[in-house]
Amino acid sequence: MAKNIDSDQYPNILGQGTKLKGELSFSENVMIDGEMEGNVTVVGTLVLGEHALLTGGIDAKNVQVQGTVKGKIKANGLVSLSATAHVSGEISCTLISIQEGAILEGKVAMQKDAKQMGMPEPLMDGEDSK
Q1: How many Cα atoms sit within 13 Å of 84 on the Cβ side?
Q2: End-to-end CA gap in the chain
């Protein structure tokens, strides 16, 4: 597991040696350093430690991978692959960071939202454009 994990920053921690199968959903940040088979949904940030093995889908705001993911990663924000990361599958995100040494087998689709592109927000029905 990553050193000096702040329990205030990651109130949900599934440690090394944990094995889970099923669907998990978290309303706060979470760190997983064990084995998981199934889908994980996180409102905040998901950190997969160096010993993590996740087989399934991820849907989170931000995802930091230090271990292994076999499946689809969907993030509305940043996906960060550390030097020890091994991802086999699709990544869909707004921003991506890949450190030297990371392994990525699959494809990446990056979407920028209107604010990042400097574009005005879409008009609501009934509003006039000026």
Answers
A1: 13
A2: 54
Q: Say how many domains are in the chain.
A: 1
Asked, for residue 32, whether it belongs to a domain, the answer is yes
Q: For the segment 79-104, what is each residue's pLDDT rounded down to a tens digit?
A: 999 999 999 999 999 999 999 999 99
Output the pTM of the full model: 0.80
Is residue 39 domain-resident?
A: yes
Q: Residue 47, Cβ neighbours under 10 Å: how many? A: 26
Whether the CB-CB separation of 44 and 12 falls below 8 Å is answered with no
d(C-alpha 9, C-alpha 45), whole Å: 9
Burial classification of residue 25, based on how many CB atoms lie within 10 Å of its CB (0-12 exposed, 13-18 middle, 19 or more buried): exposed
Tokens of 108: 């990446």
